[in-house]
């Protein structure tokens, strides 16, 4: 059966236009970043106590290893994403995130200077899950098979409940931090469009210096998601998604005019 959009997301989505829920956000630097350096040093020591790491898991006594810290930071972001989706940006507190992730507030603030920075990081980890195609990658089934797999993987990633929730949340809360809009658009281009355009260009499917065909392909690929967000149509099941991917790629390749694939 087709997969319906979770009811709570349908209620808050409204007439949302094309959504790319998880995107790269602009790098932040400058004075405000440096104000946490000393706090970061203090937090490193207490992180070892929080993690319970023994000598084998630490670089020195009382300090967690770099790998352990990265894992704990990743877990914190996954926990925070869930809280943001459930409570919204305004309703989420740093206290709740710290408690749910099992870290102290000092550690949380050392890693993310405020709630806005935490939200940015939560969106960034979603962007890093976008599928990517190596320019020279080819499947035994040919270019058509590679592109069909890409459509399925991209749609699957962007319809994960947390990705949908983050996308709807951003649309709903955008007025509260409008400065993120340019970064969201930039990230969409950097993490989704640019890598795909490079692949398509390598195979003669995109013009030099242009991403127009790539944008059209992505729009077709994500049309089931857009229809769900705009008018509430159900998401396709696995068989329906595979059929959609096949049609999408066939139309795209036919538009090239030589029957490639």
TrEMBL record:
Q: Report the domain of life of the source organism.
A: Bacteria
Zinc as UniProt keyword: no
Q: Where is the composition biased (Low complexity)?
A: 38-59
What the entry lists under SUPFAM superfamilies is as follows: Homeodomain-like
* Residue ranges: DNA binding: 93-112
Keywords from the named record: DNA-binding
Enumerate the GO terms in the molecular function aspect: DNA-binding transcription factor activity; transcription cis-regulatory region binding
Q: Which InterPro entries match?
A: Homeodomain-like_sf, HTH-type_TetR-like_transc_reg, HTH_TetR
Q: Please give the Pfam families that the UniProt record associates with this protein.
A: TetR_N
Q: Which Gene3D superfamilies match?
A: Tetracycline Repressor, domain 2 (1.10.357.10)
Renumbered to this chain, region (Disordered) spans 35-70
Instruction: Look up the coiled coil feature and give its residue ranges.
Output: none
PANTHER family referenced in this protein's UniProt entry, alphabetically? HTH-TYPE TRANSCRIPTIONAL DUAL REGULATOR CECR, HTH-TYPE TRANSCRIPTIONAL REGULATOR RUTR
- This chain belongs to the protein called TetR/AcrR family transcriptional regulator
Native source organism of the sequence: Novosphingobium aerophilum
Lineage, broadest ranks: Bacteria, Pseudomonadati, Pseudomonadota, Alphaproteobacteria, Sphingomonadales
């Amino acid at each position: 059966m087709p997969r319906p959009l979770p009811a709570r997301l349908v209620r808050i989505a409204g007439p949302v236009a094309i959504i790319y829920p998880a995107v790269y956000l602009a790098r932040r630097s400058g004075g405000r970043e440096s104000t946490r350096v000393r706090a970061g040093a203090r937090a490193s020591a207490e992180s070892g106590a929080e993690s319970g790491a023994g000598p084998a898991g630490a670089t020195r006594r009382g300090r967690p290893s770099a790998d352990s810290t990265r894992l704990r930071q990743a877990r914190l972001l996954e926990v925070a994403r869930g809280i943001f989706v459930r409570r919204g940006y305004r309703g989420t507190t740093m206290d709740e995130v710290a408690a749910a992730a099992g870290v102290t507030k000092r550690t949380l603030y050392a890693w993310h200077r405020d709630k806005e920075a935490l939200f940015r990081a939560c969106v960034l980890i979603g962007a890093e899950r976008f599928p990517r195609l190596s320019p020279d990658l080819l499947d035994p089934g040919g270019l058509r098979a590679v592109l069909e797999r890409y459509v399925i993987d991209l749609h699957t990633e962007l319809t994960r409940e947390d990705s949908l929730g983050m996308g709807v949340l951003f649309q709903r809360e955008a007025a509260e931090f409008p400065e993120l809009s340019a970064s969201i658009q930039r990230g969409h281009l950097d993490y989704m469009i640019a890598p795909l355009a490079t692949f398509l260009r390598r195979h003669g499917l995109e013009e030099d210096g242009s991403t127009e065909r790539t944008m059209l392909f992505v729009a077709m690929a994500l049309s089931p998601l857009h229809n769900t967000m705009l008018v509430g149509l159900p998401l396709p099941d696995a068989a329906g998604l595979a059929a959609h991917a096949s049609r999408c790629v066939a139309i795209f390749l036919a538009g090239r005019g030589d029957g490639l694939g």
